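Lab notebook, page 48
Experiment: co-folding of the full assembly
Goal: obtain a model of how the components sit together before planning crosslinking
Operator: M.T.
Materials (sequences as entered):
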Amino acid sequence: MAKSKPSKTASAEEKIKEAARHVFTKKGYAATRTRDIAEEAGINLALLNYYFRSKEKLFGIVMEERMAQFFGLITPIVNDVNSTLDRKIELIVSYYVDMLLQNPDLPLFIMSELRHDSDLFRKFQVQNLIINSHLILQLKEKQPSIHPLHFVVSILGLTIFPFIAKPIIQSTDALNSQMFAAMMEERKKLVPKWAKAMIKVK
Amino acid sequence: MAKSKPSKTASAEEKIKEAARHVFTKKGYAATRTRDIAEEAGINLALLNYYFRSKEKLFGIVMEERMAQFFGLITPIVNDVNSTLDRKIELIVSYYVDMLLQNPDLPLFIMSELRHDSDLFRKFQVQNLIINSHLILQLKEKQPSIHPLHFVVSILGLTIFPFIAKPIIQSTDALNSQMFAAMMEERKKLVPKWAKAMIKVK
DNA sequence: GTCTATACAAAGATAGAC
DNA sequence: GTCTATCTTTGTATAGAC
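Observation: model returned without errors.
Model output:
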């Protein structure tokens, strides 16, 4: 869990990784100081370099984990040849909402860091993963006159964008943390219904 | 224009501001070095401090401009009591697409920096601007059983999210820069149609 | 493995000449 | 106003004791 404080029982190495995950995800690579990580881990700064050699190496490890968490979720769903289009959409939305409620900083972190370091997703081959997916085929079949990528981007946008805009939405006094979570729960039902209606539109 | 090189005729002060706008927007505050800005502006580092005192001050000026550009666009549209709901949506999408095609880094910049520095939009009162808008009234009237904020977030998400996810989408060999622009042009028509269908959904 | 102390590098800010 | 040179601060990494 990204948000929990490092447990007392964990090894120093694991405590550092936990703290790094948290601080990097919240502040981004450039704004993070290794001292912040050491402090949050409750260990000495020198120990961080003892275990991980450098800030960059530690970041690489964390980033790889977070990418897997973010993109790994979607892979099996979009490529399942046995599920219907509607079912796929339901699963994508529902899984992402649950996971992002636990890790609200994740999308902004991934998007921000990827901007600088564009080699990272070549490694994960996100492109093929989505472009050549079974989901794309099903979308093409249901609505041949619109590029299926439109729908993929839209469904992900409807699900993920609220988390990216969360700082803005929440500055509103009218929406506290529980209300935000409640809205996202509602979206598990709404987005699939909306998607269905959108795909019908000519 | 954020992307153009500082013109030869501009004053040093303006050249620095232009360069700062560009570099800050692209890399974010923490990852930006004042030396980068000076170099891109084609002036000496000392001059930057002569005009702007500090990195933070310079950033503040740039940030305020960019916030105004990002949020200023939407204010008059959502509060126009004489335009229909459909028309408002058309305008929001169309204006944002045009502006963001010229400033593709802007959304990620705003969202990233706002995360750390949450006082900035209190200044702009984005909340009231949206929450108490005429658009919200119209949405509530048209679909009373769903919180109007859902639709606002969705319409903005459908419009803005593609720019945030652009680095990922573009890693796909199948989508170059012109194709991305073409897709966004299509969205000027698609998003309003989709929104209309979404609002009808019960 | 873990700490203290410190070296080293990078980046922000300023002094002072022109 | 603009530059060169330099000071200061901050942050990463290492040496060496325990």
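Interpretation: The mean pLDDT of chain B is 92.
Next step: discuss with group before ordering constructs.
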